[in-house]
Design a protein that fits this description.
Layout: E1 2-6, E2 9-17, E3 20-26, H1 36-49, E4 56-60, H2 66-74, E5 79-84, H3 87-96, E6 105-108, H4 111-115, E7 123-128, H5 143-152, E8 153-165, H6 170-180, E9 185-191, H7 192-195, E10 202-209, H8 215-224, E11 230-233, H9 236-243, H10 256-261
Parallel strand pairs: 4-5, 4-7, 5-6, 7-8
Antiparallel strand pairs: 1-2, 2-3, 8-10, 9-10, 9-11
Length: about 260
């Protein structure tokens, strides 16, 4: 684990885990989102945290705590619970990345165990951004885990999830198929090159809700940031084609690592 200073921004820091860039933090500006997928998180979460009231957000994975701090800055009054496995990650965020742990309810331990202790219908938004190397841990991808997320979401709430996949998008297709067994409304956000013929490696953000997703509005928010290469799949026909032949992941069958490499 290492924290690398940004030569182009004196306040920029990158958290490197397993030789991969896992988070970028601007110590002076929590609204600065360097990584494209985190900006997609913001776009996909906008409706869930907008409006009157103080939204409650559950984060599965802390990492650099970039997105919780972004929402604290952009959704004043929002309350955040973070399930983080690694106490060293938390210590690095606190000592080197400017995190004030008192602003968040941080619970150390496995997210699968932690979410089971949370009350039902307690959150407006759940954010999944937990990784072991390049892969989301398999037990955080299954119908059983997603049912727990659906349980803790309020009506109209949203689940947004980041994953990384390779050519063919076998894992992304399987995870999308799995989300569709729990929620009626699902969207896939990725670059055109990632979604293109044969698929390419890259980040993919999945969005799910029990309420219809305004895909047109989501596309406009993404485009307003100058991100003209991003695409949003949300129509049933497009999702049917994307998930055709993909397995549904369960606790009894979740070969995530194999899907990534084959």
């Amino acid at each position: 684990m290492a924290v690398v200073a940004d030569r182009g921004n004196m306040d920029g820091r990158t958290l490197v885990l397993d030789r991969l860039r896992h988070a970028y933090i601007d110590l002076a500006d929590p609204t600065h989102l360097e990584f494209r997928y985190v900006r997609w998180f913001g776009d996909a979460s906008a409706e869930a945290v907008a409006g009157p009231g103080s939204p409650d957000v559950l984060h599965i994975g802390g990492g650099g705590f970039t997105f919780p701090r972004y929402l604290l800055a952009t959704a004043p009054g929002s309350r955040h619970t973070v399930l983080e496995l690694d106490p060293e990650v938390l210590d690095v965020a606190r000592t080197q990345l400017g995190l004030d742990p008192d602003t968040l309810d941080i619970r150390l331990g496995d997210a699968r165990t932690g979410i089971a202790t949370l009350p039902g219908a307690g959150f407006d938004l759940v954010v999944g951004d937990a990784f072991a190397g390049l892969s989301v841990p398999w037990h955080l991808t299954t119908t059983e885990l997603l049912a727990e997320i659906e349980r803790v979401l309020r009506p109209g709430g949203r689940y947004v999830m980041n994953l990384i996949d390779g050519p063919g998008l076998r894992f992304a297709r399987a995870e999308t198929a799995t989300l569709r067994t729990i929620w009626d409304h699902v969207a896939v956000i990725a670059t055109a090159s990632t979604l293109g013929s044969g698929g390419g490696a890259g980040n993919i953000v999945l969005l799910a809700s029990d309420r219809p997703i305004d895909a047109a509005g989501l596309r406009l928010r993404i485009a307003a940031e100058g991100d003209v290469d991003a695409e949003v799949l949300a129509a049933d026909g497009d999702l049917d084609a994307f998930t055709a032949g993909a397995p549904v992941l369960t606790d009894d069958f979740a070969p995530v690592d194999q899907l990534l490499v084959r």
